[in-house]
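<derive_structure_tokens>
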Amino acid sequence: MSFYNAGIADSQSAFFQPSSQFQVPQGSMSFTQQPATGQAFSQDPLPTGLLNALSTKGYPHELPLLQEIGINFGHIVTKTKSVLQPFQRADSLPLEAITDCDLAGPVIFCLLFGTLLLAAGKVHFGYIYGVALFGTISLHTLLRLMGDSAATNSNEETKRQSEQLFLRTASILGYSFLPLCLLSFIGVFVPLNNVLGYALALTSVCWCTWSSSGFFTAALHLHNTRVLIAYPLSIFYSVFALMAIFA
């Protein structure tokens, strides 16, 4: 019985013993290599403590939080100053600021416009968001047809460019919304349903149209089409001017 068990053990050891020509593969399944990211995390751990938990500090090699979510305060200030200076050419601005798809400024201006209307006794938040969404989609479709130069690209590339153009359209329309915020601010103290209010509303609409058309011609590299773009933009901003005038 012992001789039989010894024979089985010898046969199993001979079966599992690797040959001299066998080599262990050194591929992705090998456990001898450690990823560089794991070493970086182990060498630079996150700081501990209550204040560090509430802060936005991360690993040293990570990007800042605002940069990861796409908020650039420099571009926000540049676009806002450009809208407040209507006689400044949009071509003189940095191309990165013009083509930026930032939506932080537009959201702030829309909330400010609705809040000022609310202070004047006009609750139009739903109309503001609805008209803004419908107008952005319509103008995006129009501008995509006017500046469609991606017909020879692949479907994925065309889809990506279309998404960027939609966000860029919403960003430009939102930043050029600032004169209407000034109009609604005046409406808190002075009734706008008179000749003076109509003149101020017309000035604000022309101001918004001029700024946004300049941004679009510079961002889409369109030439001699500013008047053509200005027509639908004036209609878009006129709807918000009517909200500020009438209760």
In short: The radius of gyration is 31 Å. The first helix runs from residue 2 to 16. The CA atoms of residues 135 and 236 lie 6 Å apart.
